[in-house]
Design a protein that fits this description.
250 residues; alpha+beta; six-stranded mixed β-sheet; two-stranded antiparallel sheet; 7 helices; globular; disordered N terminus
Length: 250
């Protein structure tokens, strides 16, 4: 059994807004439309991995007046081939009408160069992806301990062909792994939980994510692990964490 969460890049921090339990022998393709029905997403940008690269899901997002940035991989071979061919043709011309953005950063003993290229949707209109304005290619050259690796990722988006904004949305999606999944596993020990009786696992999963949102929103500096420990020892700090959520809702 898997949980399928939805992350919406509308807040200054990663907030988990809803989740749906995925049935046995099923996947997120069924759950994502159900999640979209639970949320008001108008004006938001929804980012998804390749599992969510489905025409019906893209249609549901646009029907709710939201934008999408979706990873394209081998599960959509026709779309993937068309994207690669379009960018290869543009490479041969060596002219990018909508621009290219290049960023460079060093962190955690890793140096990374990102090159994001976008094209106007003159190549995908006949494939049936609703309101797809922009094909995106992101190249990541990473150097760590003297070893260099190159990764190339492709996306489609309903957003205008503005490389800087699309790169920001893509990087924000990568941040979900560090700011949510990794924290739930390492700080909250979710993967180590042995709660299996009836609905105990489901209920605890919801409570962990509520706690994660509250700790993210609390203005006190420090690690989430430290905040969680302090809240367990200090009732005044615990109350301040709870009160901060009510201030944000006003």
């Amino acid at each position: 059994v898997q949980n399928c969460p939805v992350f919406i890049h509308h807040f200054p921090c990663v907030s988990l807004l809803a989740q749906v339990k995925v049935a046995n022998k099923a996947n997120e393709i069924v759950a994502i439309p159900q999640l979209l029905e639970l949320l008001t997403v108008q004006g938001c940008i929804i980012t998804m991995d390749a599992m969510g690269c489905q025409k019906k899901i893209v249609e549901a997002i646009r029907t709710r007046q939201a934008d999408y940035v979706v990873t394209v991989k081998g599960n959509q071979p026709k779309l993937s081939h068309r994207l690669q061919a379009a960018f290869a043709a543009q490479d041969r011309l060596d002219a990018w009408p909508e621009g290219v953005i290049r960023t460079e950063a060093t962190a955690h003993r890793r140096h990374e160069i990102r090159r994001c290229c976008v094209l106007p949707d003159s190549h995908l209109q006949d494939l049936g992806w609703r309101d797809c304005q922009t094909p995106v290619r992101l190249e990541r050259t990473t150097t760590r301990a003297g070893k260099v690796s190159l990764q190339t990722h492709y996306y489609i988006s309903s957003l205008p062909p503005q490389a800087a904004g699309l790169l920001h949305a893509i990087r924000a999606h990568w941040g979900i792994e560090n700011r949510c999944h990794w924290i739930l596993d390492v700080v909250f020990k979710e993967d180590a939980s042995r709660s299996r009786l009836r609905f105990a696992g489901d209920n605890l999963a919801v409570l962990r994510k509520v706690a994660l949102n509250l700790l993210h929103q609390h203005p006190t500096r420090g690690s989430l692990k430290g905040k969680r420990y302090q809240a367990s020892l200090n009732e005044d700090f615990l109350l301040s964490v709870l009160k901060s959520s009510f201030k944000l809702m006003r």
